[in-house]
Amino acid sequence: MPDAVGGPVFILVESQLPDNIGAAARAMLNFGLDRLRLVNPRPEWPNDRARALSAGAESVLAAAPVHRSLAESVADLKVVYATSARPRDLVKIVITPAQAAREMRAHLAAGTSCGVLFGPERTGLVNDDVALADAVISVPVNPDFSSINIAQAVLLVAYEWFQSGDATPPTVFRHGEYPPADKLHLMSFLDRLEQELLACGFLRTEHMRAAMVRNIHAMFGRMQLTDQEIRTLHGILTELVTRRLGQ
């Protein structure tokens, strides 16, 4: 598990250009952040071009693990934010980078690990990626020209993180002995729920199935469920399935 006091983890999903990976590492280190993760980077990795563009932030790149999937990259995190420049067909809380920085300060102060997702250059994060997040970070920009380079997005979020350290966060998360569950625990339950919904026929309409599953993921994702609550949901699901099968 990442050290919660050291700042949020930044996760670059399927980045296509080594220049952007290097520039993102540079932007992070400019503002005291060094916890970078890469999900299926498109350039050959490790990459000399990325190291050159990091302009001295090679340590951030060298320490960055490469993950095979987004789910793997967030499994040990408890709160995840997704960056997006466009509206989504999902019910998600949408906040500014400044608000996200304040919330992350409060979460980390409570011992709760956080991460921020940044999507690939061409498409940004897809809806299935966003569904795993607890909230969406959106930068207020010119609506007629809203596209932001990945490294620029990293810079904006990192800058707000750095600035927020000068003030006491207005939001206080008192998780006490019941912090939010790891994403791995949540995704395990969601996988089981999906299988049972398939088995009982709820997801019988094939052309609607992906959207329905995505909305279910988004709904549970924004609840910040605890480990105990997920265990309770597993128990409820077990009882429902047992009774349906007449066992």
Describe this structure in words.
The protein is built from ten helices and seven strands. The chain is an alpha/beta fold and 247 residues long. The protein has two domains: 4-164, SPOUT methyltransferase, trefoil knot domain (Alpha/beta knot, 3-Layer(aba) Sandwich), CATH 3.40.1280.10; 183-244. The radius of gyration is 19 Å and the shape is globular. Residues 1-5 have low confidence and may be disordered.
Keywords:
11% strand; alpha/beta; 7 strands; Alpha/beta knot; disordered N terminus; 10 helices; 247 residues
Radius of gyration: 19 Å
- Which percent bin holds the helix content? 40-55%
Mean pLDDT: 89
CATH class of the largest domain: Alpha Beta
- Count of runs of 4 or more consecutive helical residues: 10
Content of β-strand: 5-15%
Strand order of the largest sheet: 3-2-1-6-4-7-5
**SSE series:** EHEHHEHEEHEHEHHHH
Give the termini separation.
39 Å
How is this fold's topology laid out?
Blueprint lengths: L8 E5 L4 H13 L5 E4 L8 H6 L4 H5 L3 E2 L2 H5 L4 E5 L10 E2 L1 H13 L4 E5 L8 H5 L3 E3 L12 H15 L18 H18 L5 H16 L5 H18 L3
Helix pairs in contact: 1-7, 5-7, 8-9, 8-10
